[in-house]
Amino acid sequence: TFWGLRSVKRSMVPVFDAVHAIREGDLDTAITGSARDEFGDLVDGIDQMRSTLQHRAEADRAVVAENLRVRRALDNVSAPVTVSDSDNRLIYMNQAAALLLGGMEAEWRKEMPKFNVQALMGKSLADFFVEPEFRNAYSQRLDKDRVIEGSVAGRDLRLLASPVIDENGNYQGRVTQWFDATSELSAQRESEARLAEERRVA
């Protein structure tokens, strides 16, 4: 009947209001229906969905805030740092790492023509290492802290890689601190050669 239809339309108003509010991103306002019928139950169900979405959004915001805090901290670290995910894909490098790798790019491309610092994100570093030790280290899961040393693109590198494990014990990837030991090892070799020469002529 006409009056029954009007009653149904009135009952549907809070339903439409609730859906519209959620669509507009309003997850903070509780949704209540006065009717104690199927439409009231529908409104209650939508409000439960709103509450669930709200909690998820708050958790996501907390994760984003924590990630931003960590990123800002790493951005201000003077040492080169990279982060790879659980599939060994590069997901972050700080400015110091970009400068180090950028300074190596021309020499690196002689062995790996596709090496491009600006296009490294989302790729595995293992694809660009020629040295087996480096390639193997960055193509598999890291179970414990590891130091990898060797020559890369004319530089003597020392990489300190550490696994990232979440609160549930799940492997999330690795963080790597890069050290350019070229000058240090060159001076050491020169010193050893000088001492050897001094012993020879003594």
Q: How would you describe this protein?
A:
By secondary structure, the chain is α+β, with helices and mostly antiparallel strands. The chain contains 5 helices and 5 strands; from the N terminus they run H-H-E-E-H-H-E-E-E-H. It has a 5-stranded antiparallel β-sheet, with helices on both faces. The longest helix has 38 residues, at 38-75. It starts with a helix and ends with a helix.
Report the C-alpha radius of gyration, rounded: 29 Å
Poorly predicted residue ranges: 1-5
First-to-last CA distance:
118 Å
Order of helices and strands: HHEEHHEEEH
- Strand share of the residues? 15-25%
State the helicity in percent bands.
Answer: 40-55%
Largest sheet, strands/sense/barrel: 5 strands, antiparallel
Global outline: elongated
Total helical segments = 5
Map the helices and strands.
Elements: H1 2-23, H2 38-75, E1 81-85, E2 90-93, H3 95-111, H4 132-137, E3 146-152, E4 155-165, E5 171-180, H5 182-201
Antiparallel strand pairs: 1-2, 1-5, 3-4, 4-5
Helix pairs in contact: 1-2
Please describe the structure with a list of short key phrases separated by commas or semicolons:
alpha+beta, 5 helices, 5 strands, single chain, disordered N terminus
